[in-house]
Automatic annotation (TrEMBL), chains A, B:
Catalytic reactions on record: L-glutamate 5-semialdehyde + phosphate + NADP(+) = L-glutamyl 5-phosphate + NADPH + H(+)
Main subcellular location: cytoplasm
Gene: proA
Cell compartments where the protein resides: Cytoplasm
Gene3D superfamilies to which the protein is assigned, alphabetical: Aldehyde Dehydrogenase, Chain A, domain 1, Aldehyde Dehydrogenase, Chain A, domain 2
Keywords: Amino-acid biosynthesis, Cytoplasm, NADP, Oxidoreductase, Proline biosynthesis
InterPro entries according to UniProt: Ald_DH/histidinol_DH (IPR016161), Ald_DH_C (IPR016163), Ald_DH_N (IPR016162), Aldehyde_DH_dom (IPR015590), G-glutamylP_reductase_CS (IPR020593), Glu-5-SA_DH (IPR012134), GPR_dom (IPR000965)
Organism, as annotated: Marvinbryantia formatexigens DSM 14469
GO molecular function: glutamate-5-semialdehyde dehydrogenase activity; NADP binding
Domain Aldehyde dehydrogenase per the UniProt entry, residue ranges: 10-286, 316-378
Annotated protein name in UniProt: Gamma-glutamyl phosphate reductase
Function: Catalyzes the NADPH-dependent reduction of L-glutamate 5-phosphate into L-glutamate 5-semialdehyde and phosphate. The product spontaneously undergoes cyclization to form 1-pyrroline-5-carboxylate.
EC number, UniProt record: 1.2.1.41
GO terms for cellular component: cytoplasm
Family statement drawn from the similarity comment of this UniProt entry: Belongs to the gamma-glutamyl phosphate reductase family.
């Protein structure tokens, strides 16, 4: 039965209060039960997914997209493993921060509380359904999911398994709801559900994110595209530079924390580029450089203005020459997307200036940009990487899915 | 000369980098200079303000509005004093939080940084111009102000004095800019300046805030209306209850943290209401109660459904009877606006349950809701009180005007 958006919102709101007071023991038991049931009901999930795949193939969906859409026993086990890991993590809810006594005797602190109702808009990976639920639920939130129409039957099946598991644990199944109407109108309406939804998190490509930011009246956490730079300073250890650039560019290319553009101090162009090119040639990385770069090494395409602003997500790297750290910082602050930026340097002052002056979610000295990730940062799980400055910036773990409220203990205080 | 919004946005963006690296000494010197100049140029400010007042009177503006609009030597001294106090406060920028070493040797922490460019949309109080600038500037941000058209000449004069003071201190005057075109079209366009403005904070009545939330594509921090409740538990100290209610209702009526609605346990209606009414009669507070309340004391108007949801900002108090704490919590979570809620009780378990289960920015035990305020909480200054859950909730001091970025110290780490 398809529910209207208002019905879905009303149910999610009604789930807020019981979820707010659900203790860790009950939450972890429900997560483990959901993990167990996803594996136990693999056949049902695979059958639903097979229908989505068949429809995708009939519609001429590209193999890469079909692969994203596909569930396998291993991927289902992966979803279950994600929920199991969340059950092992500390409960972020209830912690009280910075409690202090005021001169009038009031004791004031901030208690960590759930956000309430979180909306997630995503594309065709059905595993996001279980992952997003797990994170939102562990942080005490109700989640409303709007997945891609390609994965609808898979998502319906996954959500049903999780809802049944919750009900079996006496937890409100409305902790997870799926919007089954995947029309554009309904999606736009979903973005305007102020009063029902506390925050929307889009997960997907740049087009999806832009549409959500533009149309939403509910607060949005923008997760992001990454036009990530590495700046190789005059004083860099060149072998370290080559190793880090090779890693950041080629270790995995289709991800937001991959390096897309290199900025090189003019004094080390000659020393760096031949060795770097030789290394990147192992993976057939196409280089696009400015004039100085083209003069220094062969087989480099001339970079256009457009290249400096492009997130390739491919075996392509742009290279810009600069005469100073100032110029490097100005270039990076102009073209970056607020994701991850790195400097390779042996110079103390330059390292500190880069850390202080670059405007991005994660700024590195002498390390690969590929580390910007919830697991690598030690959060254990991640709902996405925020490239905005409000609320959460960088990899978002459980804490990013919480709010705080002030709690105040008095003994009759009135305001004079 | 009126600048276009794009020019204003471009100048604010250009100011970000120098403001990001401005140290505390330079910021405080500029704040003190601005304070000094506002007082030194009082005559000019008063003359500009007199023109706004004259226009307001010609247009039949109400006396209350004229009073909000009016500058006096005392109010100018107050603005200067606000800037002077900010100069004495610690700089929030640069602090590094939670720095930890990962197993691979990376040292990862969060550095507090400015948000960037903050937009403030407000109504006719010209003192907001200096206050908002001071807070944004101390936190390292550029501010773009859009004040009410009634106060335009006053705002132009105040902004000019501050810009001159900044320039005299070799600080970019574009740290503060005023949108002089106060048309509705320009205001709406201002709300869509993604890429130029990092956050918008509306300051004013419910209508203004609603319009900003609805039309803005830039992230908004909703500051708020307060339909604040006090729940008098069965076990309350009745004298304390009367004192707190009297304070929260009448100490100042036109403010968002004033008490608008009382929730009373049915078992103490008889004991509480006559004494309470006698006390509130001192200020001629009109009572609107449910049936049980009307039966208990005379001269009570019957409350309608609308009363439960109304922020009166007046000498009016609604009173609802409940049979249990559960019912009280459900009523308050249904009708509150996420601002400030209090319980009066001597019961330990009820106090803890109320603190945990009420969904609001500030939840009190045995104290007046009137304390929800940046000064009272010890923040020293306040840009407003957030009633949303994202980024900042409750009174917003300097920290609410900052973001963080991850800084990572490595020594050649690459991702395996």
């Amino acid at each position: 039965m398809k529910l209207s958006l208002t019905e879905i919102g009303t149910r999610a709101k009604a789930a807020e209060q019981p979820l707010r007071t659900l203790g860790r023991t009950a939450k972890d038991a429900a997560l483990l039960k959901a993990a167990e049931e996803l594996v136990a009901k693999s056949d049902m999930l695979l059958a639903a997914n097979a229908q989505d795949i068949r429809k995708g193939e009939e519609n001429g969906m590209k193999p890469g997209m079909i692969d994203r859409l596909r569930l396998t026993p291993e991927r289902i086990a992966g979803m279950a493993e994600g929920l199991t890991q969340l059950a092992a993590m500390e409960d972020p809810i209830g912690e009280v921060i910075g409690m202090k006594r005021r001169p009038n005797g009031l004791l004031i602190g901030q208690q960590r509380v759930p956000l309430g109702v979180i909306g997630i808009i995503y594309e065709s990976r059905p595993n996001v359904t279980a992952d997003a639920f797990g994170l939102c639920f562990k942080a005490g939130n109700a989640v409303i999911l709007k997945g891609g129409s390609d994965a609808l039957l898979s998502n319906i099946a996954i959500v049903q398994v999780i809802r049944d598991a919750l009900a079996a644990c006496n937890v409100t199944p409305d902790a997870i709801q799926l919007i089954e109407d995947t029309s554009r109108e309904t999606t736009t309406e979903f973005m305007k559900m102020n009063g029902y939804v506390d925050v929307l998190i889009p997960r997907g490509g740049a087009g999806l994110i832009k549409a959500v930011v533009k149309n939403s009246t509910v607060p949005v956490i923008e997760t992001g595209t990454g036009n990530c730079h590495i700046y190789v300073d005059e004083s860099a250890d060149l072998q370290m530079a080559v190793d880090i650039i090779f890693n950041a560019k080629t270790q995995r290319i289709g991800v937001c924390n991959a390096c897309e553009s290199l900025v090189v101090h003019e004094k080390i162009l000659d020393a760096l580029l031949p060795a770097l090119k030789a290394r990147l040639d192992e993976k057939q990385v196409e280089l696009r450089g400015d004039e100085a770069v083209c003069r220094t090494i062969p087989d480099v395409k001339e970079a256009t203005e457009e290249d400096w602003g492009t997130e390739y997500l491919d075996y392509i790297l742009s290279i810009k020459t600069v005469a100073s750290l100032d110029e490097a910082i100005a270039h990076i602050n102009r073209y970056n997307t607020g994701h991850s930026e790195a400097i390779i340097t042996q110079d103390y002052a330059n390292a500190q200036r880069f850390l202080n002056e670059i405007d991005a979610a994660a700024v590195y000295v002498n390390a690969s940009t590929r580390f910007t990730d919830g697991f690598e940062f030690g959060f254990g799980a991640e709902i996405g990487i925020s490239t905005q400055k409000l609320h959460a910036r960088g990899p978002m773990g459980l804490t990013a899915l919480t709010s705080t409220k002030y709690i105040i203990y008095g003994n009759g205080q009135v305001r004079p």
